Amino acid sequence: MSGPALRPLEEPLITLEGVSKVYPRVNRPGERLRAFIALLAGREPRDGALVLDDISLEVRAGESLGIIGENGAGKSTLLKILTGVISPSRGQARSNARMAALLELGAGFQPEFSGLDNVRMKGALLGMSPREIDDKLDQILEFASIGEYIHEPVKHYSSGMVVRLGFAVVTASNPQLLITDEVLAVGDESFQKKCVRWLERFLADGNTLLMVSHSMYLVQKLCRKALWIHQGRAREYGEVFDVTQSYLAWHESRNAFERNQRNQETGDSGLYRLESFRFSEGVEGREQAIRQGDPLQVELKLYSPDGRPPAGLVGIVRADGTPIYGVASEVEGVVPRRVDDSHFALSIRFESLPLLPGNYAIHGHAMDPEGMRLCDTAELRFRVRGDSRELGFVRLEHRWITED
Amino acid sequence: MSSGIFTQLVLRAIRSDYLNNLSGFAWLILQPLMLLAVYAFVFTVIFKARIPELEPSAFVPFLAVAFWPWTAFSESVLRASNVVTANAALIGKVAFPTELLPLSVVTATFLMHLVGYLAVLIVLQLTGTEIHWLGLLPAAIILVFLYLFAAALALIFSALHVFVRDLGQMLPPLMTFWFFMSPILYSPSLLPEGLASLVRWNPIAWFVGRLRDALMFDGFSPEWSDLIVPAAVLLLGLLALGFFRRMSGHFEDFL
């Protein structure tokens, strides 16, 4: 595959400057009328839902940008502003590109009409002349692989067929800039692969892609940059791996937070206590980060009411609570060092931490001397930094074998 | 690019009306002729309607020449008035010049009624009315301006309908009122003095009057109103387009 074709970079294809979007309240006719009068007078609607707040963005030819965020974060609104379907309440949006947008499967399709009629309409909406559509009809039908159904009304199509047909017209319209909103998720496996192959070639030819997706896999595969929209604001913008990582980490920690809240309600306290639990080597900085492969050491200070040495248990979990590794001192025959009559201390060291980049937590527990009962729990969060593209949580020792 | 969309939208509007019917385009001609027969029966046999300054037999052509242009006008305005709200799904998902929606409906409606109008004129000629075919040229120009007038109103109402949904209920009776306030079923000479001067301000009176002058009477001589009404229509059209475009960026918020 050849590298991206060189294009003059004089002007970005898309520029957003301080774009905000307020959806006016229009539930009651009176509100509708008031908003209309405000529009006529050129005033901003006084109250409404702020969906996007001060987003600035530049997309240049040849870039590929993934837009990620929770449901309702404003991603789709952003795409609508980018494509010109709606105008921003504040700020400016400019674009100069032969643009094709696939905001929803079958947008512009009329269910009563046949697939062929809808291909003509969709093609026209994408800026194709009737001749161009006729010339590329075979190519479109081939890509959509719909067969004789093309003469049936679209209302008889499955959602997969609709999206195949829609995507097929888009591929034929030969856009410079493609904007898609979570569309590929609908097709079946083989069609998704076909689309991804097409998109990769599309990007390799120096074209530009803007996509919204909840599939971090797709975003990482297709995009080089990512924008994380959170509650209408740009929370992070940068290299795709950095942004998707912190997005996933945020999700994981939110899930874990919810789980912790549940755990605290049930409560668990016992005789043996964990007096302190801290990192003694490895993590640094305010965000408690460690580089992949660096040593990590944590120290447990344990309290024992009866003077017998308690057991310590240490476990590493992903930020969402998925256990990765845990080990108890008692199992390995280790007895904590006695500090005084009722206090003990114990450290555990991972010489070269094999965790892959992401957010994690290390749990420390105090157990009874027999290692039977979990009495106290503490948690430390940390982040592993790195730019590994391996998958999963942990790097397993391995080698590739190529000779016979 | 937008011409392709426009063509597709016009075709779609025509097809959704006629092509799904059994005999398709035949209705384009049959329907107006059946209506013509009904009117001829009701107004000449039952009402014995006549125009004072014309022969009794001239009432049906007098009505027909004005009635089909009016039907094209009012039907296209009414049909276009909710076209933006009806295509909410399209507007929210695809970026294209939204004004093509009302304009395509008006165009499709006029094209369909034009076919019927020609059929009616031919049948009138065959049944003994003298149609001045040379008058077709001025008549065509008048119809173009009627089309532009309908397009202007369609732009305004379809944009307004997004914000004021009551328009959908208000417009049909208003159109009926407008129909009876226009000299379509009657000659302006039948009106009492006060009302006659009022009807002169009704642009439809100019359209139907001039169409009759062109097609029924030989005397089509230019008048001042021939400049004023078309100029006013053009001005209204520009204003309507400006209004529509200003509003179209906000449609999505209200749909």
Concise synopsis of the structure shown:
The complex is a heterodimer of chains A (about 400) and B (about 260). Chain A is of the alpha/beta class and about 400 residues long.
How is this structure best described in words?
The complex is a heterodimer of chains A (404) and B (255). In chain A, strands 5-6-7-3-8-9 form a six-stranded mixed β-sheet, sandwiched between helices. In chain A, 40% of the residues are buried. Chain A is built from eight helices and 18 strands. Chain A is of the alpha/beta class. In chain A, 27% of the residues lie in helices and 31% in strands. Chain A is elongated and about 90 Å long. In chain A, helix 3 (115-125) packs across helix 5 (159-172) and helix 4 (130-144) packs across helix 5. The longest helix of chain A has 27 residues, at 240-266. Chain B has 255 residues and is an all-alpha fold. Chain B has one domain. Chain B is built from twelve helices and no strands. In chain B, helix 1 crosses helix 6 (100-126). In chain B, 40% of the residues are buried. At the A-B interface, helix 1 and helix 3 of A face helix 1, helix 5 and helix 12 of B.
